[in-house]
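Readers of this paper often ask what the protein records in our data store actually look like. Such a record has a labelled line for the sequence and another for the backbone structure tokens. Nothing more is needed to write down the fold, since each code stands for a local backbone conformation. The remainder of this section carries one protein's record, kept here as part of the documentation.
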Amino acid sequence: MKNLKISVVLLTLILMFFVKTGSCQELIKITIDVAPAVLNLSNSGTVVTVHTDIAYSAVAGATVSLNGLAIDWWKSDSRGYFVAKFNIDQVKAIVKPGPCLLKMEGTTKTGEKFWGEQQITVIAGKK
């Protein structure tokens, strides 16, 4: 019984630390739309574009990544949402033919973390 009380006290202290320091924050889930939705490994395109439903003004652009790949550049769409551009050759290097789950992550200018994911299809077509 004494060990249980000690465990409860320790757990409470740990939770209080994380809440107070902000280390235990909830991630913001966003919706993303990856283009192309079918990625042809033989295609000579230059970028993979990820459209989002998060405000452009809220995002710290340099913090954004796609499956660990650094963002190449970013912009706002006509509705004020964040649009990310990733080098297509870097994306091709981390995928293989078949279904592929792409996950975009980043941080807002206020330090909140966000993420979104979409499954695309990868094909090894002819040039």
Notes: Residues 2-21 form the longest helix (20 residues).
